[in-house]
Design goal:
- The structure is a single chain.
- The protein has 36 residues and is of the alpha+beta class.
- The protein has one domain.
- The protein is built from one helix and two strands; from the N terminus they run E-H-E.
- Strand 1, helix 1 and strand 2 form a beta-alpha-beta unit.
- Keywords: Ion transport, Potassium, Potassium transport, Transport.
Length: 36
Amino acid sequence: MKVIICGAGQVGHNIARSLVREENDITVIDQSEDLI
């Protein structure tokens, strides 16, 4: 599944990590380049 996560803070990071383990295609978007 392709998933876009808006926000790379603690919650977004944990959701992305969980979805990657399930072999999903993840894109994370955030205003702060430091968090990406």
